[in-house]
Amino acid sequence: MDLTGDLEMLRSRAFVLKEGVDYRVKVSFKVNREIVCGLRCLHLTYRRGRPGELMQPLHPWPPAEPGDTQKSLWGCPCHRHCPLPTDAPWCGHCQRLAPAFAQAAAALRDESSPARLGKVDATAQTALANEFGITSYPTLKLFRDGNRTHPLPYTGRMDAKGIVGWMQRRAGPSATLLQDPDTAATFVDSQDLVVVGFFKDLESEAAQVFYEVAGDVVDMPFGVAEAAELFEAYGLSADTVCLFKKFDEGRTDFPVDPARGLDAAELTQLLRVHRLELVMEFTNETSDHIFGAKIPHHMLLFLNKSSSGQLQLRDDFRAAAGTFRGKVLFVVVDVAGYGADVLPFFGLTPADAPTLRLVKMENNRKYQMDQDVFSETAIRTFVQAVLDGKVKPRLLSAEPPEDWDTRPVKVLVGKTFEQVAYDETKNVFVKFSLVNKVILHFLMHCTMLHYTYIRYGEGAWAPTGRFVG
């Protein structure tokens, strides 16, 4: 397929193309019922007679110290092969992680940790990438005690604090052994949130699962106990995981089912949910926990905290929250504070407060009362109606362009999406993309796809399908 015209188009739009460089565009697609159902643009740039140059990462990665390669190695295969002479978006994750990775390496070195961080360039070390099944970038793995066959996948946050915390938890015992009531009481009182596993046999399968979870959930301290006097002190008779917290109900117990045992994913999710306050305030400090809990629905109260009248609305909001714990997370958003940045996402302004919205996190569908009523009963009734599928979502939509249906590629907005995309008489291929023309101008791969997309939209597929974007 000759796409020379597309290169001329790029030149005319002020893209800088180097002399002596061949620019080739490969478009891969497959046909499904006579329409193109998949397009992917891969821009390959290389100099005449020799392979293309590899871009260096924005920040140098900390080298592993001699002798540490097998003992304790982080493998972060960083896909540094950037086809364009500027940072390509698909390399951005590696470049953004680089400074955090360097900070984590320095922090571990300063505390004399035996752990060391290293890197592997998967574009050069293809044999290693294949051996360890690396398919996405960056990928982080921990090699412990020279074990080459079973490296541990990284499960923490992609920032310096997350990396250091995860490594510290993995390097030492993941849970503190509590041997007597005084030690246990001191541990429970040490922080606002602690987890203690009570097991009659610390070698049991359930206890091992608990240790596994403790190694992954690095932002909470974990303790473990097996002494009979500790079971008695905390009113327990069987294996139980207890979450102690200095808010709400103070303690939440998760008894271990003797038949099923303890499931790591289930326990992790329970801890994520119950570590949150019954009503959370959306702030910079809480946002990671709010979204990390993976609670399927969020009920939001938008208010102005500088208004005493609006602050009183939190009481009924909180009273309604207990019924839906684990299913719906209740969140207060201050429209005059940190929450101001999310208002456009809901089509709101500070003047709209106080108001309520419920969001289904799976698809970002938003639900709104016909008229805001802030009583406990009204809130509970509304939330239950949404969960029961009795309330239709509120769609935020721009007005469709006048000529939206006359173009080769139809331009969709919220009001026309379902009409076109769910047309049972056609196969519809939809491209979701940025609409900011300034940003789009600098994303060469988006621009190339845009014009290729239009070319196909003008082609012979129109009778049996539609291209929209």
From TrEMBL:
E.C. number(s) listed in UniProt: 5.3.4.1
Localization: Cytoplasm; Endoplasmic reticulum lumen
One GO MF term: GTPase activator activity
Residue intervals passing through the bilayer: none
GO process terms (BP): protein folding; response to endoplasmic reticulum stress; Rho protein signal transduction
Pfam family, one: Thioredoxin_6
Source species, domain of life: Eukaryota
Gene3D superfamilies: Coagulation Factor XIII, subunit A, domain 1, Glutaredoxin
Keywords for the protein's UniProt record, in alphabetical order: Cytoplasm, Disulfide bond, Endoplasmic reticulum, GTPase activation, Isomerase, Redox-active center, Repeat, Signal
Recorded catalytic activity of this chain's protein: Catalyzes the rearrangement of -S-S- bonds in proteins
Keyword Cytoplasm: yes
Main location: cytoplasm
Residue stretches making up the Thioredoxin domain: 55-172
Cellular component, GO annotation: endoplasmic reticulum lumen
InterPro entries recorded: Ig_E-set, Rho_GDI, RhoGDI_dom_sf, Thioredoxin-like_sf, Thioredoxin_domain
EC class name: isomerase
Family statement drawn from the similarity comment of this UniProt entry: Belongs to the Rho GDI family.
Protein name as annotated: protein disulfide-isomerase
Organism: Limosa lapponica baueri
